[in-house]
Amino acid sequence: MPFRRSGRLKAKTITLAHGGGGKAMRDLIDDVFIAAFDNPAMGEMEDQARLDVSDRMAGGGRLAFTTDSFVVDPLVFPGGDIGKLAVWGTVNDLAVGGATPLWLSAAFIIEEGVEVEFLRTIAASMRAAADSADVAIVTGDTKVVERGSADKLFITTAGIGIIPPGLDLSARHIRPGDLVLVNASLGEHGAAILAARGEIELEMAVTSDCRPLNRLVDALLAAAPATRAMRDATRGGIAAVLNEMAVAGGVGIVLEEAALPMRADVGGFCEILGLDPLYLANEGVLVAFVPEEQAGRAIDAMRCHPFGEAAAIIGSATEARPGVVVMNTTFGGTRIVDMLIGEQLPRIC
Known about the structure:
CATH architecture of the largest domain: Alpha-Beta Complex
CATH topology of the largest domain: Phosphoribosyl-aminoimidazole Synthetase, Chain A, domain 2
Oligomer: single chain
């Protein structure tokens, strides 16, 4: 492996020189990011990571590839930070497609004036998050912009995984009669972010549900191999995801409000602020469509996992009103659950 420098970055805060392509930039990369993410693929120090997939693709598996950007405010919040969010968000995008996540890239846009020690903390958090999900950060990039041109730190990640032969999760496979499952209580990430901003005087101990779902997905698929489709419910909450899946699958979806898993304090928080928890962001909640005959086994498997203890059946797919999501309310009525034009809360992921 090429010789690696360490401990050479002397600056306390980021300056424009750290994005200029010279020695200052190399010191930043070596001493903050390489020091945290070092692995054989990154250690080659080329302009790309060179990854051998021959053994993983030999049986006819398919490549899964995703990308996402993270601009959360605040950068550190109860239950997580922008680094964990970037790693686990990308892991989850791969996992709900049935892929085994393997490799990530990470690109950083850093505002002039950010403290170097803060970057070290975020890089260490990302490494720990990657290790917990059995993935490696193998390549990346850094850019520095003038003070005021960004909000401290933005991260873009991309991820690669392998989908095993014979597995094809897609909303187009959803059939009337399939049951809608979720693994956890709703809205905790959105509520935690809003509370952390300190704009509203509310005492609430809720933390973000930011977590990796790849092993939970493995357990679900082992118990219910006929699972039709999965999505992770991030921006727009489960309402946005279910509307997208209803349209793609050509089915209607009926939810049961009484079956929705939700913490009492999150529900009260939403009621006070006039927010609808169906639209609140999550970072550790998946929505799965499973044939009725396998739904019980799927719920049992998820409840045996620490990230699925609140797993519940919340509705079903139907032939009626294809492309429309409705909910039977606890008051005995029915309402349409449409997509919002924008989002309830900005900068939540």
